[in-house]
Each structure stands twice: as structure tokens, then as C-alpha cells.
Design a protein that fits this description.
transposition, Nucleotidyltransferase, domain 5, IS_Transposase, 51% helix, 2 domains, DNA-binding, 234 residues, DNA binding, alpha/beta
Length: 234
């Protein structure tokens, strides 16, 4: 049975929809910035159309990227870096937990109202259920991590130390730039959705230019674009 196209009720071509979603999620652009960039390319759409596309297709694209990378053994079981960053929603502090592998790829994002043992335990179980158990887990000195890992029998895998968790700290920067462009969040569900979609879409394009030659960077970028253009094809 032929798979139905997710674009079958849209007059706009799939290429334009994918481009609009990538521009909005990957870069710190507003909806009107994306509208202007598409207009320069001869594509006349409303910023409200870009908003609808992002809400409709963003999670779909992110889900397919995660499936492809997990199936292709892209997930690392060697070393994870865990960290949490606070995000304000309507003036109330929430916490965004992130698990990052040794190459800087975000494996899991999770939003909670607290950062106690219960929240850390739920986050760890969710990440390990999807990606398995790593050999080493690098964290900061937040006691919630140690208590949660002790309960699941992974205390011997934890490692803390000064500057050891810079990989996770640096992974917050693209999200912070995206947050400023969106002028903060109003609902916890919106934060969770954006964090998960942003991480999945940003991962294929996350190449450390300072650690690779120009030829390798161009090759990896071309491969990421090729993968992106093939998402959700009928």
C-alpha cells in the first residue's frame, strides 16, 4: 500500500515547507524574518503560514530524524553529559534538562518545574529507555543526579569535575538564541515541544568547524541537507 503524502492537502510545495521550517527552527529568526527571506527568493507566504507549518510539520520532521539516527546507530553509549538550565514561563522558573553525547549531539530534552531527585530520575529513565545506558555520565555537582543514579544502580558511572561538563553547557547556546528570538515562552507544553524539535533538527547540522577541515565540513553539510530534503517523502 502506497504511503500517503503528509503534504497532500497543501498547495505549497514540500520543498518550500521544509525550507521554511528549517529556517525558523534551526536559526534564531522570527516568523516575519522567515517570511521576508522567502519573499526574497520569490516565495510569497504569510508569517502565519510559517507558524502553521512549524506546528504541523516540525514534530513530524523531528520524529523522522530521531528514528533515522537511532536506527543508524548514531546514538552514543560511551559518554553522556547531563545538565539543566532554567527557563522562565510567565515569570515562573522551570528547568530544561538535556542529555548530550560526547560529540555534542542532543539526545534528550525534558522540562520540569523542579530539579529534585524525582525530576532527575524521570529524565534519566526517559533518556535511557530510548538510547540505552552509557558507560559514563558526566554531570555537575547537583545532588539530584547522584541520588537518581544511585536508585537506578548507575552511581559508579557518574563523573563530576571542573570543566568536564562544558560539552553540555555549550549545547544550551543555540537554544538560548532561539529563545530570545521567540521572546520567551508562555506555556510549558510549548517549551517542551520547541526544545525537542529544535534539538532534533539542529543535530544533523551541528558540525564543529574548528575541529574539521573545510572539505570535511562541506561534505557533512551537504549530507545533512540531503537528509533534510528527503524527510517525509511520499
Amino acid at each position: 500500500m502506497k504511503k500517503k503524502s503528509p503534504y497532500r492537502y497543501f498547495k505549497t510545495s514540500p520543498e518550500i515547507i521544509r525550507l521554511a521550517v528549517m529556517l525558523y527552527v534551526r536559526f534564531p529568526l522570527s516568523l516575519r524574518n522567515v517570511e521576508d527571506l522567502l519573499h526574497e527568493r520569490g516565495v510569497v507566504v504569510s508569517h502565519e503560514a510559517v507558524r502553521y507549518w512549524w506546528h504541523r510539520f516540525g514534530p513530524m520532521f523531528a520524529s523522522e530524524i530521531r528514528k533515522r539516527r537511532i536506527t543508524g546507530m548514531k546514538s552514543s553509549h560511551w559518554r553522556w553529559h547531563l545538565d539543566e538550565v532554567f527557563v522562565r514561563i510567565n515569570g515562573e522558573r522551570h528547568y530544561l534538562w538535556r542529555a548530550v553525547d560526547h560529540e555534542g549531539e542532543v539526545l534528550e530534552s525534558y522540562v520540569t518545574k523542579t530539579r529534585d531527585k524525582k525530576a532527575a530520575l524521570k529524565f534519566l529513565r526517559k533518556a535511557m529507555r530510548k538510547h540505552g545506558r552509557p558507560e559514563m555520565i558526566v554531570t555537575d555537582r547537583l545532588r539530584s543526579y547522584g541520588a537518581a543514579m544511585k536508585e537506578i544502580g548507575a552511581a559508579h558511572r557518574q563523573k563530576t569535575g571542573r570543566w568536564l561538563n562544558n560539552r553540555a553547557e555549550n549545547s544550551h547556546l543555540p537554544f538560548r538564541r532561539r529563545e530570545r528570538a521567540m521572546l520567551r515562552f508562555r506555556r510549558m507544553r510549548s517549551l517542551q515541544k520547541l526544545a525537542a524539535v529544535h534539538a532534533s533538527i539542529y543535530n544533523p547540522f551541528n558540525s564543529e568547524r574548528s575541529l574539521s577541515s573545510r572539505s570535511n565540513f562541506k561534505m557533512n553539510r551537504a549530507a545533512a541537507l540531503y537528509e533534510w530534503r528527503g524527510l517525509c517523502e511520499a
